[in-house]
Write a structure and sequence with these properties.
Layout (H helix, E strand, L loop, with lengths): L4 E9 L5 E10 L4 E5 L6 H9 L6 E6 L2 E2 L10 E4 L11 H11 L4 H14 L15 H13 L5 E5 L7 H18 L2 E6 L2 H7 L2 E6 L2 E6 L1 H6 L4 H6 L3 E11 L4 E5 L2 E7 L9 E7 L4 E4 L4 H8 L2 E13 L2 E7 L5 E7 H4 L7 E7 L5 E4 L1
Parallel strand pairs: 3-8, 3-9, 6-7, 7-8, 13-20
Antiparallel strand pairs: 1-2, 1-4, 4-5, 9-10, 11-12, 11-14, 12-13, 14-20, 15-19, 16-17, 16-19, 17-18
Helix pairs in contact: 2-3, 2-4, 3-4
The protein binds adenosine-5'-diphosphate (ADP).
Adenosine-5'-diphosphate (ADP) binds next to α1.
């Protein structure tokens, strides 16, 4: 199959010897929305700049539509990049800003005008076409940057934290616009962010990076339900990690000896053997909290076969949500939220309880 974009064993070592990206592999299909997510300095922007051609590639192959483009300059690649600060020309009007790239490309003026008019229309900028961008809001400037890129008709649009400068409400509405636009145009989007919620809301797949390496490539939901590494388990969502040693492997679930007794979990996509040191990654959403007055066998039958004792410390009602603060037998604090209907009159603060979960809802990661 021909991919729109392929990164094969891509590496980047800066002149000062910093290995910024290490053995990066990714195949992107046409029209996919991909996010690079990870803490500051993990190599997201470097990777994006290598795709755009603004940064040289130290090792590996970069393919666009099946063609190796490692040595092609940015303007010869079918990519367009939007920077965090938008890099608009303050002395030009909105229309002139959007027109600029087409003029550089020496497109006939009538064609360029038509394309710019369409882009301005699509992004709701027609009414401010003859205004200078410095007089406009952050959201409008974001749209100008988008129009300026889209007018070039790229196959791949690269976005480097494009919503970083916007306030939370505006971010949400522009997120929606971006997603709709991307669907409508069918362009491949590669998006850099350090904001989880943004990556989760927008992407078809998320590439989680850590210290120059790819930790996991998954659809958003899978990062929650099936983290493949301890880093991802700690970075995404709200997980409790229970460490132990693998006792038995077989069937769908693995038995692990833990300080809380023998527990079962589904393994991540990696080999597991008896004796391995491992961690159970338990998402807060998978936990059921029950009072200690309930029969343990009944809990096992109805709420999942993994059951451990806990101390319920704090219960707080926020609208329809009950916030539960508890501690595990090793003193580790755990917080979770549940719908009030599920817990109505069931729990009381300062009382012992149980936490139960279905083994299939937790993931085992070998260390
Ligand atoms: P992110 O986008 O995830 O914040 P970057 O790709 O900007 O990360 O940076 C990755 C690593 O490369 C960091 O250690 C950073 O300090 C280093 N780095 C980035 N740009 C340069 C550069 N021009 N020269 C040397 N080191 C750089």
């Amino acid at each position: 199959m021909a991919y729109d974009l392929q990164l094969s064993h891509i590496g980047k070592v800066y002149d000062n010897g910093t290995p910024a990206v290490i053995d990066f592999n990714l195949d992107v299909e046409k029209g996919e929305f991909i996010a690079f997510l990870g803490p500051s300095g993990c190599g997201k922007s470097t990777t994006l700049r290598m795709i755009a051609g603004f940064e040289s590639i130290s090792s590996g192959d970069l393919l666009i539509a099946g063609r190796r483009v490692n040595d092609l300059p940015p303007e010869k690649r079918p990519t367009s990049m939007i920077f965090q600060n938008y890099a608009l020309f303050p002395h030009m009007t909105v229309r002139q800003n959007v027109m600029f790239g087409l003029e550089v490309k020496k497109l006939p003026t009538a064609d360029a005008r038509r394309k710019v008019g369409r882009a301005l229309d699509m992004l709701g900028l027609s009414e401010v076409a003859d205004v200078r961008p410095t007089r406009l809001s952050g959201g409008q400037r974001q749209r100008i940057a988008l129009a300026r890129s889209l007018v070039m008709e790229p196959d791949i649009l690269l976005l480097d934290e494009p919503l970083g400068a916007l306030d939370a409400n505006l971010r949400k509405s522009i997120q929606n616009e971006l997603k709709l636009l991307q669907r409508e145009l069918g362009i491949t989007f590669v998006f850099v962010t350090h904001a989880q919620s943004e990556a989760l809301a927008l992407s078809d797949r998320i590439v989680v990076m850590n210290a120059g390496r790819v930790e996991q490539v998954s659809p958003p939901r899978e990062l929650y339900t099936r983290p493949q590494s301890i880093f991802v388990a700690r970075f995404i969502g709200s997980n409790t990690l229970i460490s132990g040693q693998v006792r038995q492997v077989g069937g769908d679930a693995v038995s692990i000896e833990t300080p809380f007794g023998i527990l079962r979990a589904e393994p991540a996509a990696q080999p597991v053997a008896t004796g391995n040191a491992a961690s159970i990654v338990l998402p807060a959403e998978a936990m059921h909290v029950l009072p200690a007055t309930m029969d343990e066998a009944e809990i096992r039958a109805h709420h999942g076969s993994n059951v451990i004792p806990c101390m319920i410390n704090r219960l707080q009602l926020v609208g329809h949500i009950l916030q539960i603060g508890m501690t595990l037998p090793n003193g580790e604090p755990v917080s979770l939220e549940g719908h009030v209907d599920k817990y109505r009159d069931l729990l009381s603060a300062g009382s012992p309880g149980y936490v139960a979960w279905n083994p299939a809802d937790a993931t085992l990661i070998v260390q």
